[in-house]
Amino acid sequence: MPIPERQEHILVMLRQRGRIRVADLARELGISPITARRDVETLAKQGALRRTHGVAIAIDAPATAGHPQHPAGRVHLSLRQPSPAVTAPVIGMVVPNATYYYADVIRGARAAVAEANGRLVIGITNYDLDAEREQIRQMQARGVHALLLTPAWPTGTSPDEEAERAARLGVPTVLVERRGKLGFPVGELDRACSAHADGGCLAVRHLADLGRRRIGLIARGSPTAAQLEFGYHAALDHLRFPRSSRVVRTTPPRPDPAQVEATLAAVVAQARRGRIDAALVHTDQDAMQFVQQLQRQGLRVPDDIAVVAYDDDLAGLADPPLTAVAPPKFAIGQASVRLAIGRLGERHRAVPGLPSAPRHHLELLPELRIRESCGAPAVARSDYDRTIKRP
């Protein structure tokens, strides 16, 4: 592409998005980072754009506070920023809780809102539908510009009776770790989700590569469980492991401690009889309890049974440290905000008669972090030994 044409293309991209990282420009245009940086510097000297800290900024784009680096292996979205009509967006975020899994999702959202010089407002539902509706009502009354929603849908996909409500809230709405049902308006909302089925498949393939042939699955009854089970069976089907060799145990949704203990004990009994030689366990806490039960029964980890945890909040602190699948929680929070802000910007730049930008259904892939519970060499407990990332 000739230099003038390439630089004009950069300016068109900036007019659409407001700001773009130079590294993203290089990737999208198929040029080297040095070439992209020179083009941006040339255009900045001409007064055609502004630049700061590796970011090209349209002349009429609002200034923002900081552009932190994104964690390795995460997905960065080069989405359009708000136009000057929304210089400080207020984003409402409704989540089941602010601890455990969603703590990192919230941190990612906060980082992305800070990029846009905006404000994040959090509402907690404790998986209660009435509380969820009240939190949304309060945020609408406060005049939030966009909403990030993790609705209390037991399967993770909108039930028919909920299929209209989330799509009719009057502001740009992004589903976070939830999926709208196909064929309904809610299915057309932007969304950002962890690809938990891929995470389950990744764990099973790793265990099989280590020579394990009788792999079990233990999962808490949740939207995550159904996807993990799908990925678990998909991996074993691909490996041609017989269905008769599989052990799957799922607790009820939001189980009490006794139910978790009984579920783990049933799988430990299978391990004692030689029915399994490896297990994928969701969550970290349950995986740690599972290892303790195995040890009480005289079974060694990883010698007798290899264990992979799913979530990686506490897995590295176990004894032995647990190999774990880590969903991209921080990146999910970031991506959700960027989707909302991009949709906000589009509203204020809309041209009558022109179609709106395509909706985004993002699936971010988890990582597998290797520790001792599968037979990896001893590692420092304050760090990860190796991280498997998909190409």
Secondary-structure map:
Layout: H1 3-17, E1 19-21, H2 22-29, H3 33-45, E2 50-52, E3 55-57, E4 90-95, H4 101-115, E5 119-124, H5 129-142, E6 146-149, E7 173-176, E8 190-194, H6 196-209, E9 215-221, H7 223-238, E10 247-253, H8 257-272, E11 278-282, H9 284-296, E12 306-310, E13 323-326, H10 329-349, E14 361-364, E15 367-370, E16 386-388
Parallel strand pairs: 4-5, 4-6, 6-7, 7-8, 8-14, 9-10, 9-11, 11-12, 12-13
Antiparallel strand pairs: 1-3, 2-3, 13-15, 15-16
What can you see in these coordinates?
This protein is of the alpha/beta class and 391 residues long. The chain is 37% helix and 19% strand. The strands form three sheets. It has a seven-stranded mixed beta sheet, with helices on both faces. The chain has a six-stranded parallel beta sheet with strand order 5-4-6-7-8-14. Strands 1-3-2 form a three-stranded antiparallel beta sheet. Helix 6 (196-209) crosses helix 7 and helix 8 (257-272) crosses helix 9. It is globular and about 75 Å long. The chain starts with a helix and ends with a strand. 43% of the residues are buried.
Average pLDDT confidence is 85
Tally the helices: what do you get? 10
Proportion of residues in β-strands: 15-25%
Helix content: 25-40%
Radius of gyration: 23 Å
Spell out the helices and strands N to C: HEHHEEEHEHEEEHEHEHEHEEHEEE
Low-confidence stretches: 62-85, 378-391
The largest β sheet comes out as:
7 strands, mixed
Helix/strand class: alpha/beta
Number of strands: 16
Shape type: globular
The largest beta-sheet arranges its strands as 10-9-11-12-13-15-16
First and last CA, distance: 28 Å
